[in-house]
Amino acid sequence: MPRVSRFPHSLIITKALYLGLVTLALVVAAAGHPHPGRGFAVELGVGIGFVGFVMLACQFALTAKFRWLSRVVGLDDLLHFHRQIGFASLVFIVLHVGILLAAQPEYVRYLDPRVNIPRALALWTVLLALATLLVTTVRRTELGLSYEWWRLGHGLLAFLILFIGLVHILQVGWYVATPAKQAFWIGGTLLAVGLLVWTRLVKPFRTRRRPWTVTEVRRERGRSWTLALEPRGHEGISFHPGQFVWLAIEDSPLLHIQHPFSIASAATEAPDIELTIKELGDHTSRIGEVEPGTSAFLDGPFGDFVLDDNAEEAVFIVGGVGITPVMSILRTLRREGATLPRTLIYGVPRVDEATFLDELEEEATTHESIVPVVEDPPAHWQGEAGRVTPELLDRHLPRDHAGVRYFVCGPEPMMDVVEGHLRRRDIPLSRTYSERFNIA
Ligand SMILES: Cc1cc2nc3c(=O)[nH]c(=O)nc-3n(C[C@H](O)[C@H](O)[C@H](O)COP(=O)(O)OP(=O)(O)OC[C@H]3O[C@@H](n4cnc5c(N)ncnc54)[C@H](O)[C@@H]3O)c2cc1C
């Protein structure tokens, strides 16, 4: 089975590089600045503004869907970082305004349209856009915003704030006096906007050149459907079991309607692949209506939820549809006759909702221990009942050693319990692979 080398501290390194970039921007701003200081508070306010701007610009890189980055860091870690930085950049921008107003109250005139209409309009627009960005992100579900429209609006608002921010920096002119410095800020902003255009327009459009055909739509247990796909006129994609793709179905009228789904089929079945999709919201609840013969478009593969080349044993702790990436790993190991010992702890609400349970049990090999955990078990159920708890994990986890890899994927509360327990058992993060399906 294709394995990958895993770089254990990749997220920390990504964060360090990020910090380095923000610091570099401050150094560039301060270098050769000819003007005398305007007092500590004002300089602090301005510096914080620059940092907020750079952080915002870097947000576009974090969501740019770089395959190589998702393989070393993991999409959910990246998006979690993106979310944290989003809030932090917001705080920096608000602090920028607050500190400057506190230090120099007369700056309030810049917000007064009677003094300078374009400048006041721009500043109010930024403040309003920031507030909208925050509220729609934190309260998306309550506002009834679909993920796709939220994502589109999110990108457009971020672009607007960045654009006005750049004009503001150039207009104020402090710390950007030389053409080289202006080129730095304009170039950096263009790069960020370029990444947005690349991710949201160019990449989805490019996937259209490599179409796939839906060959079968199969109902599975647990309100799920399996979509079998075959590449049309190309060699398909080369993936590691456990990775995912972004799927767009032909009848999506807009290019931005792409959803992430793990590949559930074995790597040995390539170039054909299967995705198993649970009915959940507006898009997935219509997946069963897709007709065989329909075209589909895939962007990927992405993700680091894969066995690395030093793994000697694997433990999978999954819940519900979180079984999909693990199916790909298990199916591949089984088809290849791999002897790697593996344990699967699979939490489901009821037996009749346990997607793939029959296949998992019927095709189990001597190298596998399959532990279904049924929350609401039928009468005479002999197996584990209830939820996946620390006590249950202690009963079934194998003895830990440096070669054991832990894979966790399922509903958020289950993942929190499992990850917390693995930490308590001193299992290092470098040997734990988590995939969170809810990334918004
Ligand atoms: C890495 C990864 C792998 C996944 N693998 C599978 C899988 O194998 N099988 C499966 O059934 N589900 C999988 N999911 C979850 C699946 O993507 C969502 O259930 C699906 O997109 C929900 O869409 P919806 O419009 O029907 O639901 P909604 O109710 O609109 O959305 C529910 C939640 O799904 C997420 N979501 C919705 N639309 C998108 C989108 N366009 N892009 C990203 N996230 C979105 C958001 O977190 C949202 O809050 C995976 C998710 C991720 C991140």
Structural write-up:
It is a single chain. With 440 residues, this protein is an alpha/beta fold. The protein has 3 domains: 10-206; 211-302, Elongation Factor Tu (Ef-tu), domain 3 (Beta Barrel), CATH 2.40.30; 313-435, Rossmann fold, CATH 3.40.50. It has helices spanning 10-30, 40-62, 67-72, 75-103, 117-138, 147-172, 179-207, 323-335, 357-362, 390-396, 412-424, and strands at 211-220, 224-231, 244-249, 259-262, 273-278, 295-302, 313-319, 342-348, 368-374, 384-385, 404-409, 432-435. The longest helix has 29 residues, at 75-103. It starts with 9 loop residues before the first helix and ends in a 5-residue tail after the last strand. The model has no long low-confidence stretch (mean pLDDT 89). The site of flavin-adenine dinucleotide has 26 residues, from α6, β4 and β5. Flavin-adenine dinucleotide (FAD) binds at residues 75, 146-148, 244, 258-262, 276-278, 280-284, 303, 321, 324, 435, 437-440.
| Cα-based radius of gyration, to the nearest Å | 25 Å
Task: Write down the domain tally.
Answer: 3
First-to-last CA distance: 32 Å
Strand content: 15-25%
The biggest sheet amounts to:
6 strands, antiparallel
Percent helix, as a range, is 40-55%
Given helix and strand content, the structural type is alpha/beta
- One letter per element, helices H and strands E, the order comes to HHHHHHHEEEEEEEHEHEEHEHE
Number of helices: 11
Major β-sheet strand ordering: 4-3-6-1-2-5
Bound molecules: flavin-adenine dinucleotide
Runs in which pLDDT lies below 50 for 5 or more consecutive residues are none
Average per-residue pLDDT, rounded, comes to: 89
Q: Could you give the count of β-strands?
A: 12
| Cα shape | elongated
